[in-house]
Amino acid sequence: MEDWLSDYLRRILTARVYDVAVETPMDLAGKLSARLGNRVWLKREDTQPVFSFKLRGAYNKMAGLSPGQRDCGVICASAGNHAQGVALSARRLGCRAVVVMPLTTPRLKSDAVRALGGEVVLHGDSYSDAYRHALELQASHGYTFVHPFDDPDVIAGQGTVGMEILRQHQHPIHAVFVAIGGGGLISGVAAYVKAVRPEIKVIGVQMADSDAMVRSVRAGGRIPLDEVGLFSDGTAVKQVGEETFRITKALVDDFVVVDTDAVCAAIKDVFEDTRSVMEPAGAMGVAGLKQYVTRHEMKDQTLVAITCGANMNFDRLRFVAERAEVGEEREALFAVTIPEERGSFRRLCEIIGDRSVTEFSYRISDERQAHVFVGLATSNRAEAAEIRRALAANRFDALDLVGDELSKEHVRYMVGGRSALARDERLYRFEFPERPGALMRFLSHMPPDWNISLFHYRNQGADYGRILVGIQVPPDEKADFRAFLDNLAYPCVDETESPAYRLFLR
């Protein structure tokens, strides 16, 4: 064993973390294990007092400072989790803590720092911007700097995660999957694992839009990024540390790069097994594990993913839920072109059959063709191809939109608008029991001689589905239309005179 690795092993074994941190559990993810055909264990760092592993490194560093250094007060830069670790450690050690955080930091994290007694300074759009400002404040005020990752004492504190994994699971482990931002966690875990059980693989996981470590290792030197993505704010680092780069390059076996949809799917996976909600960085290890298993066609192996944080803003859950199904390849999205003629909707419904519809949006805009935005629940990616072939066989052109960011982010919400073709249109909101095939059954009740000019539906996971329907009803058929509504027996509201309808759709 090289001397530097022996030194890190000693540092990890003697790290002072348990004054404030807890030994977190290793939980078997039963549902995910069964689905992947491997034994998947979750190292639950999201259960720390500040819901993140960062407390370990922050306290180990600060506990080792001299009384004089602590008397000057400490300062750090952080996207949120390190900040909470520093604030809690400062409260425990009785010193002042100034925390510089990016303006993009979720309010949940900045409020948590304030609640722990930390003084929050918001500056810049990324960790790197906050870091530069923190150095300026340190120079002008004489604070003691506590780095979030590029410090041997911080790395050693994070390395106690690896120590616990090997102590808690003494049977064979094929690989440990670790999210990477600046590299502190993976450096500490890799140092301990490779010193004690070098046969275990250590796999780093990065976001596709914040992959500074992957690029740096491949280039053989630290590569700064011009921009980083903000979805996984906990790993949004433009340049990794010098020490973390050195250790990662020497010890980490492989890397996996994941995208936003894959992380959203992983958040859902962890929730289904633990009933806990990870922040994006906290689920990256699981996303990488799943991708690695698929890439290498692995079976019957023992794999560990570190769930490293759970500081999730509640208002982000809407976005995560939207993208999780796509990330897990459980939702197919299509733009389907059908003839603008009576009966086309019914034929489309017959092709879709009893599949669960997740989204259905349409607005009349052309006398010859109709373009429908359709989302369907699927069991795998191959099923989406089958659906597309079935549509094509019935002369319905279908454009696969699963990989289209514009459609997923914006177009799905913008299908609609005014139409000069929507003559004699009546607009209604309906509710119906949300069961598989319910939307198709609703559509099949529509008389084929009444033209549907607008249709909008999105499955929101509730007990009742809500749809907005525009139907062109000739003036002399209003009595028949009223009878149709009565026979349908779905709760409905006439919105034809709604101001919003008149402003944006009529």
UniProtKB/TrEMBL annotation:
Reaction catalyzed: L-threonine = 2-oxobutanoate + NH4(+)
Please give the InterPro entries that the UniProt record associates with this protein.
ACT-like_dom_sf, Ser/Thr_Dehydratase, Ser/Thr_deHydtase_PyrdxlP-BS, TD_ACT-like, TD_ACT-like_sf, Thr_deHydtase_biosynth, TrpB-like_PALP, TrpB-like_PALP_sf
A GO BP entry is:
isoleucine biosynthetic process
Task: Answer yes or no on keyword Transmembrane helix.
Answer: no
EC identifiers of the protein = 4.3.1.19
**Repeat keyword on record:** yes
Per its UniProt record, what NCBIfam families does this chain match?
Answer: ilvA_2Cterm (TIGR01124), PRK09224.1 (NF006674), PRK12483.1 (NF009130)
Role noted for this protein = Catalyzes the anaerobic formation of alpha-ketobutyrate and ammonia from threonine in a two-step reaction. The first step involved a dehydration of threonine and a production of enamine intermediates (aminocrotonate), which tautomerizes to its imine form (iminobutyrate). Both intermediates are unstable and short-lived. The second step is the nonenzymatic hydrolysis of the enamine/imine intermediates to form 2-ketobutyrate and free ammonia. In the low water environment of the cell, the second step is accelerated by RidA.
Q: What is this protein called?
A: L-threonine dehydratase
The primary gene name is ilvA
